[in-house]
Amino acid sequence: MNSINTPIYAGKLKKPDILLSEGKIKSLKRSLEVIFTPGHDYSEISLFDKETKIIFSGDHILPRITPFIPVQNENSNLLKEFLDSLDKVNNISHDLIAPGHGNIISNPYKRIEQMKLHHQRRSERILSFLKIQNLTGWEITNMLFPRDLDSLNLRLAFQETLAHLHLLRSKKEVLKNNKNGVSKWTLNN
């Protein structure tokens, strides 16, 4: 994992010009609210325009794919935060979602449920693999994504697998055991 470099086109972190807090942006005449929606990134936000009932979701909610959820360290659980953020947006009365990529989402509640179901099914698949045998994260990745992937997509697939394993561990459904320098995941019976 450490040997995989982030592509140059992903950009570099810069100090923000303005820091926003969750809630109404007071310096605007328009009723625009910041919604803290971590998942794709620790600092991900969405913006809610109360007048038009549009949520500008950035990369949080996309029309065709689910966003990449990274694993920063052994204790990160951004997939849980992502799912919690989906619930937060789902509880806001809105009509449309304007994502950072792709078309306007005209049935936002359905799309949110689709994304949650995707992650639920992915977690269920991982649990089904672990019912048969203990596996490394890499072995699980190859079972979830059996086709050849380029290095970037392989990195994304591995990180998504780890994100699911971290989520399942937080729910006490799986355990991670280290033996002879190899980490294997197992069901928590």
Write structural notes for this entry:
The chain has 4 helices and 7 strands, in the order ββββαβαααββ. Helix 1 (about 80-90) packs antiparallel against helix 2 and helix 3 packs across helix 4 (about 150-170). It has about 190 residues and is of the alpha+beta class. It is about 35% helix and about 15% strand. The model has no long low-confidence stretch (mean pLDDT about 90).
Approximate shape: elongated
CATH topology: Metallo-beta-lactamase, Chain A
- Second-tier CATH architecture: 4-Layer Sandwich
Give me the strand/helix succession: EEEEHEHHHEE
Indicate the radius of gyration in whole angstroms: 18 Å
Total domains: 1
Average pLDDT over all residues: 91
State the total count of DSSP E strands: 7
How would you summarize what this structure contains?
The protein is 35% helix and 17% strand. It is α+β, with helices and mostly antiparallel strands and 189 residues long. The strands form 2 sheets. Strands 1-2-3-4-5 form a 5-stranded mixed beta sheet, covered by helices on one side. Strands 6-7 form a two-stranded antiparallel ribbon.
